[in-house]
């Protein structure tokens, strides 16, 4: 009870206003009620027709399933073998819990998924969608290809899919998780591309004495972890497959940083890789970063 009068008197001292830069000036909260409602929905634009909206909504549901399962798994087993494998044996579970929680529960502001193609990128072969970058930072375009190439979560581990070999974004829910991490409203630009391939992700977790500094904010680490732990609820052993060490050598010439990419060349390589991999759906997954560079993040 004694907190209340002191807060009220503090807020009523008008002269305090000048002491705060505007961004730090405490908002006057409308009532003394606990915070209850959050605008957590990722909105779908009117350019999406009924079937597109239904499929995207289903993808968002799958993304929530992946994130919620990851969240619950870590809360139950904060530093188990899977956490150590993807984030590091000495990593802090708290930021990872936070990123998954933001995906599901965070205020999404004006974040929007749209089905028209305002930047005319969907004409590019193998593009399933893209983040609009500086053209509209809260917007993500979903291209036609997504409706034919993306799979529902029940198909995880079916059709010969192997997590260490095939594109994790084959699954619409995981694909949208990746796209969500690009949108500032979801994770406040804290998620990066430090390591993309499965082998590189495992190595990142072991680096820095397993303290997880970079692994916990690495897009593919969060995506792989969520698919791996979810797949183990569907099947006894998941479907990581045989982790091929030489994969790392194949990619050692690559710059995996977010700013990399000769877009055209990469798209071609990714397209070739996609057609060679088991599920036909493993198509390239190109998107644009804030600095305008194009990143094709399939492995
Ligand atoms: C929605 O649009 C797609 C093409 O973008 C079309 O293939 C599909 O038939 C449309 N669905 C409906 C219900 O009109
Ligand atoms: C933004 O718009 C410009 C002009 O239409 C276009 O050239 C560019 O590719 C767009 N950026 C993205 C990320 O699509
Ligand atoms: C983790 O390791 C890196 C590299 O050794 C170091 O720069 C960083 O400060 C460490 N972080 C923590 C939280 O110990």
Automatic annotation (TrEMBL):
Record keyword Transferase present: no
Family matches, as Pfam families: HRXXH (PF13933)
Q: Which UniProt keywords apply?
A: Signal
Give the span(s) annotated as Disordered: 245-278
In which residue ranges is the amino acid composition biased (Low complexity)?
258-278
GO CC terms: cell surface; extracellular region; fungal-type cell wall
Q: From start to end residue, where is composition biased (Basic and acidic residues)?
A: 245-257
Which InterPro entries did the record assign?
Answer: HRXXH, MetalloPept_cat_dom_sf, PRA1-like
Q: What region holds the Putative peptidase domain?
A: 32-242
Signal sequence region = 1-19
Q: Which GO terms describe its molecular function?
A: integrin binding; metallopeptidase activity; zinc ion binding
Tagged with keyword Signal: yes
What is the recorded name of this protein? pH-regulated antigen
The organism is Pseudozyma hubeiensis (strain SY62) (Yeast)
């Amino acid at each position: 009870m004694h907190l209340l009068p002191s807060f009220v008197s503090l807020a009523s001292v008008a002269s305090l206003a000048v002491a705060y830069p505007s961004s730090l000036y405490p908002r006057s909260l409308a009532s003394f009620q606990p915070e209850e409602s959050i605008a957590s929905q990722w909105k779908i634009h009117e350019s999406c027709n009924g079937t597109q909206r239904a499929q995207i909504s289903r993808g968002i549901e799958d993304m929530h399933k992946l994130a919620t399962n990851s969240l619950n798994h870590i809360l139950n087993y904060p530093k188990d073998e899977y956490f150590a494998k993807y984030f590091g044996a000495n990593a802090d579970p708290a930021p990872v819990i936070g990123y998954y929680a933001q995906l599901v529960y965070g205020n999404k502001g004006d974040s929007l998924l749209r089905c028209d193609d305002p930047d005319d990128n969907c004409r590019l072969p193998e593009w399933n969608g893209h983040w609009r970058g500086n053209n509209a930072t809260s917007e993500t375009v979903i291209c036609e290809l997504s409706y034919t190439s993306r799979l529902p979560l029940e198909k995880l581990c079916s059709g010969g899919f192997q997590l260490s070999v095939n594109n994790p974004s084959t699954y619409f829910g995981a694909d949208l998780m990746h796209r969500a991490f690009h949108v500032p409203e979801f994770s406040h630009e804290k998620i990066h591309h430090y390591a993309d391939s499965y082998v590189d992700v495992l190595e990142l977790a072991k680096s820095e004495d397993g303290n997880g500094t970079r692994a916990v904010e690495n897009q593919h680490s969060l995506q792989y972890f969520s698919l791996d732990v979810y797949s183990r609820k569907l099947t006894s052993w998941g479907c990581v497959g045989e982790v091929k060490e030489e994969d790392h050598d194949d990619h050692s010439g690559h710059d995996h940083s977010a700013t990399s990419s000769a877009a055209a060349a990469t798209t071609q390589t990714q397209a070739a890789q996609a057609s060679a991999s088991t599920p036909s759906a493993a198509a390239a997954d190109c998107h644009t970063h804030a600095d305008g560079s194009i990143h094709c993040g399939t492995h």
